[in-house]
Design goal:
Largest sheet: 4 strands, antiparallel
Number of strands: 4
CATH architecture of the largest domain: 2-Layer Sandwich
Order of helices and strands: HHHHEEEE
Number of helices: 4
Structural class: alpha+beta
CATH topology of the largest domain: Beta-lactamase Inhibitory Protein, Chain:B, domain 1
Number of domains: 2
Strand content: 15-25%
Helix content: 40-55%
Strand order of the largest sheet: 1-2-3-4
């Protein structure tokens, strides 16, 4: 079971209850403001990454070899998009798991990444002869 999806809501609830017990309604307002700020920071990061990716061709990366060296199992698709500054070219059927994306550089080296549930599970680098 993936506990990371449970930790954030539980932490928010604990923070809010603690703020209520310590400061009353003012504490709830403060905790709510902090939660909204946290959500806005993540949303702003997401939009910034996607704005940078929108300015580049789909499936293009500066160096597939360097990207191959930087990848680690378990990173999110959004993290890979941030590293490539480009949306990957979708190779699998839309809305089906696993999702397979490819990125190609100017030397025709191709990196194929497989994501399951938005997390990187494997990748392969193909270099031209």
């Amino acid at each position: 079971m993936n506990f990371t999806k449970i930790i954030a809501p539980v932490a928010i609830i604990i923070l809010t209850v603690g703020a209520w017990r310590q400061f009353g309604w003012a504490g709830i307002a403060l905790a709510g403001g902090g939660v909204v700020m946290w959500i806005l920071l993540h949303f702003t990061r997401l939009l910034t990454i996607l704005k940078k990716a929108a300015d580049r061709p789909i499936g293009h990366v500066a160096s597939a070899v360097m990207l191959n060296a930087k990848l680690k199992k378990g990173v999110s698709l959004m993290h890979v998009i941030a590293m490539t500054r480009s949306l990957g070219r979708l190779q699998s059927p839309k809305d089906e798991q696993p999702e397979i994306f490819t990125w190609t550089d100017t030397g025709q080296s191709t990196l194929t990444c497989t994501f399951m549930g938005g997390k990187l599970i494997e990748w392969t680098l193909q270099r031209p002869e």
